[in-house]
Amino acid sequence: MAVTDKSILKRLYIVAGCMVLFAGAVLFKLVSIQIVDGEKYQALADTRTERMFTIEPNRGNLYSDDGSLLATSVSKYTIRFDAVTVSSEDFKENVKPLADALAKQFGKTSSHYQQILRKARENKNRYALIVRNLDYSDYMAVKKMPLFNKGAYKGGLIIEQKTKREHPLGKIAERSVGYERVDENGYYTRVGMEGAFGEYLRGISGKRLKQKIAKGQWKPIGNDNIIEPKDGYDVYSTIDINIQDIAHHALLGQLEKYQADHGTVIVMEVKTGEVKAISNLGQTSEGKYYERLNYAIGESHEPGSTFKLVNLVAALEDKIIDTSSVIDTEKGSWKLYRHRIKDTKRGGHGKITMSKAFEVSSNVAFAKMVHEGYKNDPEKYVNRLMEMGIHKELGLPVVGEGKPVLRYPGDKGWSGLSLAQMAYGYEVSMTPLQTLAFYNAIANDGEMVKPRLLKEVKEWDKTIEKFDKKVLNPAICSQSTVKKVQQILKNVVEKEHGTGHGMYSKNFSMAGKTGTTQTNYVSKDRSKYEYISSFAGYFPADDPKYSCIVVIHKPDKGVGYYGADVSGPVFKSVAQKVYATSPLTSEVDVKDVLVADNEDSHSGYYKKAQQKYAAVPNVKGMCGMDAVAILENLGIEVEVKGNGKVKRQSISTGTDLKAVKKIVLELI
């Protein structure tokens, strides 16, 4: 019996000792947690209930050169309700007046909002959705409503703000305006001007403390931010929205007519290099056109006959030929080794001067000129092109500039045919903007300026940074050569034999060069050949104001594919309208300038525009933006109602301008 009691007592001591040890361990852990690891666990608890959130700043606005919006950030607000923080007395007193105010503001019934509010109160919902995607005026109205006017704590008002980027011009210049996006890893995707000028536009993020509530939701703590965000600067581009609209619609009309795959138009100010319009349209599988890619800047391709200008300048500078030098185009076909080079005119042009060879765009003449002139020293030819900067990128801020291709003797792909091929724009590659920069240099008396999309950066009315023209090459060639090729470019349009004569207008002058480039030419099946049609030049021909290039890829061969037929009319339409709406034409009879050559051309809208500087013109049937440009150029204030073409004008045609201050246009 005693032994048994002793055994039991021993076991009790063991159990008691274990309990003491366990209690000591627990006490030790509690002390450790409280004193040693207290800060760590407190921080862990805080992160699970409170967290710092980033507040994105308002992105700066992107403007055209006249201050019209190209891209802007619009704040959208979501209103939620914390039903727990509101006292019973305040809720009972204000629930119906609040529901009535919400119903009046947003169109739903008062009972609808009362049900949301009462249900949130019953369920102790701290994050009940009331209304989302409000604009600023609606948001301010909500803040003044009963109960919500008491703020976050007493009124239960929760405000969430997000920013949406909008393009007031819609799809026009969408790719050139572009965007900037950042992923979860902080990597940026930059497209167009939005991407190029993101460092100015994006601003600096702020910080806001939020508390975790039910269902993994977070609500702001207090009304103030920990760190206020700093809004981005406003950026003023060089884009002219009137010229942009003209270029867009002229290109669109021609793409639709020829069912082409894609195309681009660029308009640039000659003296400054300011890009006034840049339109890029590609075709969808349904045959519609939209701003798919920035072909103007990113697509490098064989330029074809527009490259003949580069070769003519090189040959004149190296005194290989002169404009009066006679060259035999034979019968429009010249065999070099086993390769035969042909002109588009059957039978050829016979013996002609080099100036006429350029004007009629003879491949044979140019192949002979370059091959015979440089075959003993091909390095001299390529070095001359390099001196003019043909091999260099323009160094644009817009991401994705295509690389020019200019092979050097000995490079992979160089052959005995290379000189002849390069003479008429093959075995070389340039983007449309790089080609235009060269033509612009000729228009600018030899000075090559860098194409520019940015004018200045502002914070409200304060200029942060201003951008002036940048000269890439003060003289790509001698003044003697410049004057010669300027006249020849003018002859391309004015002379009856010129490939661009179909564009000729007696009322205003243009100068430039057609180009028709064959693609898929390695195929022996001619049915698979595709073409690139282009026209590059400037206007007016004397004292040029603007340079322009039009490039259209893969037009329907059954409708047409030559540069003069496909791209030339777009160039003429742009030149006509820009010229007619420019203040520089104040002494010109705009009626004559705007008369189209045929009803099919985009400028046919202007046949109805009986422009007289002493009277109000008839703008019915015209594109709204074109009508506005003409009327404002006459000093008339214009009010526009609707979109599309002009259906009605409030002031009759022929009314004395002196008696008119304002006109209302109804568009459909």
Automatic annotation (TrEMBL):
One of its GO terms (biological process) is cell wall organization. Coiled coil: none annotated. InterPro entries: Beta-lactam/transpept, Beta-lactam/transpept-like, PASTA_dom, PBP_dimer, PBP_dimer_sf, PCN-bd_Tpept. The keyword Membrane applies. Keywords: Carboxypeptidase, Hydrolase, Membrane, Protease, Transmembrane, Transmembrane helix. It comes from the Bacteria. It is found in: Membrane. The chain crosses the membrane at residues 12-31. SUPFAM superfamilies: beta-lactamase/transpeptidase-like (SSF56601), Penicillin binding protein dimerisation domain (SSF56519), Penicillin-binding protein 2x (pbp-2x), c-terminal domain (SSF54184). GO terms for molecular function: carboxypeptidase activity; penicillin binding. CDD domains: PASTA_Pbp2x-like_2 (cd06575). One of its GO terms (cellular component) is plasma membrane. Residues 610-668 form the PASTA domain. This is PASTA domain-containing protein. It comes from Maribacter litoralis.
